[in-house]
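Assemble and predict.
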Amino acid sequence: MSEIVAKVKQKQIEQLITNDKRLDDRGLTDYREMQIEPGLIEKAEGSALVKLGKTEVLVGIKVEVGEPFPDTPEEGVLTVNAELLPLASPSFEPGPPDENSIELARVVDRSIRESKAIAVEELVLEAGKKVIVVFIDVYVLNHDGNLIDASVTAGLAALLNAKIPNYVVEEGEVKKKTGYKQLPIKNYPIAVTFAKINGKLVVDPLLEEEQVMDARLTMTFDKDGNICAIQKGGGSGSFTSQQISEAAKLGQQISTERRKLVVKE
Amino acid sequence: MPKAQEKQKLIDKEGKRIDGRQLDELRPVKLEVGVLSSADGSAYIEWGKNKILAAVFGPREAHPKHLSLPDRALLQCRYHMAPFSVEERKSPAPSRREVELSKVIRQALEPAVFLEYYPRSSIDLFIEVLQADGGTRCASLTVAALALADAGIPMKDLVVACAAGKAEGKLILDLSDSEDKLGEADVPVALMSTPQEAITLLQMDGTLSVEEFEQVVSMALNGCRQIYKLQKEALKAKYVPLKEETEG
Amino acid sequence: MPVFFEKREIVTPGDLIAEGDYLAGENTYRDGEKLFATRVGLVDLIDKTVMIVALRAFYAPRVGDTIIGKVVELTIAGWLVDIKAPQPAMLRASDVFERSFKPQRDDLPTVFDIGDMVITKVIAYDRTRDPQLTVREPGLGKITRGQIMEITPTKIPRVIGKKGSMISMIKDNTGCHIVLGQNGIILVSGKSPENEQLAMMAIRKIDEESHISGLTDRVTQMFKKIKGSEKSAEGTRETETN
């Protein structure tokens, strides 16, 4: 059940964009106001609630001891799951993850994995046998557009917040020593999402903008400004190669600024 | 090795519990109404370490249509726990416990809602437990009632819930997670106060004598009455009058 | 015969508001001699009727209401319209086309298509069937320009004001054409987006502050302030060019 956009609203959005304006008076390359609340869920090893405008995403980090994948015996395991909660929008239905929640989970996963944000080689307890498994659960609480950027930010903030038990291997058994340590976070991926409306690229789209856009392009940048994940989605429209280059250059600049809000130097 | 020495003491010699509470003391409760913009009604509760969100959509067309009733609205309820809400990560797929709780919560709220006003429609209630620490069904019911009121759903009364039980031989109010796991009994109770007091949810885990049971229910109802006042305050808090404007 | 609340005090569901020979008005229910609130709102007593003006409520259709809805589906019978009520509403094809004309499904979009906003009227509604709509009267039909906003339906009377005083004030100050749907959906259409925004700001203020007395004054002040600052900006520009 997708939400149908009123034609007058679509016209209004397109007219505003032609004049470089938006529904909420933002510039085409401005983000909405963002708040990050780390550590909301004390029982989780790490957590962060991100409010981007009215979009709200909560990420929880749980950690367990498990077996590594057979082809990577000297690496910890990272797994990302996303839920588009029915709370978050009248068009989200309860049930197993649909294509949208799976897409969201996989884009967040690639952003974190490809940037090597977590030093997975430091999560090995006994090579080939016992490693630390990191579960990242993305919980979308309220949908007002741009779930990807909010989720990647919340994921990064939650990882930075996370404290895991001091696991040691004694006589072939994994034990917890007293105290906690931070997860080994080495990189800080930031996603920047563009919506294409009336031929223009608009950053951090509102829900209403997403409902009228031709297509959406997300690029995730690591701390050195390299692109570590890309996803074109959100519609059956297309981009010219010029628009893609424009997005890459603009995205890199924007991500550097956005990163400062999440990672305090 | 004596068993008593290994078991964690829940209640000390002075009658104080692990978290410092008296036997008949509630954990701190915080309520907020109207917290999510996409839902028709919403509310958030922090009850001890429990953190729970509730949202309501409707009355709206029933999905799937064949479930709709000709003479009243359908109340559909989903109680669900986040994977990170508990010590050991829980799979996001609904467990049998979540299915049971969805049902008892729904049946505790139905007597209070004027379902007959809205035939052929559905009122959809979603409860998400973000962090759990014992007594989640009572906290869920309490916050769900506020979400329904926030959505403008007409009700006879706000339903409120609280649990009481027994641990280490003593009758206690509002069991925390460890008291629930290690104690002798846990009895959650939901109360609707008007037009007359009516109990709309009642369950028990554990064993009690009949006399103990009556005392425990009485304790739980007292807890309910205290929380009921907080519910009313939370609904009114949204409408705090403006401060005087300094300039015309 | 006791009433247990001051007029315009905020009550919550389950609050006992009166006992005795009173009539149960909107958003109350009776149990024997007692009257209770069913919604969050402001209590009021008119003659012998106790009622609650709900602060949070959704639209319940009434025959004769003028409302604004969105076309969401095309069916054999006509257009399904979302009017923000518990059931979807139906605008029959026969309401628009001549009775002898048998419209093929393809002809419907030429009149109203999915996504069109329409000003319409409820002509039938009861417990056994969904609301039926019409667009036959003057002033009804498709919306082609302007902005749409949504407020709590119970606040519409406040936007109108005593004898239309509030809505006239808004129209005079902004030059906008405003259509108030009883379902809380409002069309604001003006000469410029700025005028439309100004009217919408005033309406939003009414929606958020209707429970606090002195609303009319505050809205008047708001217009004065904004118009005043516009005037002084113009004044400055004029002196600069001199």
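The domain at 7-13+22-262 of chain A is CATH 3.30.230.70 (Ribosomal Protein S5; domain 2).
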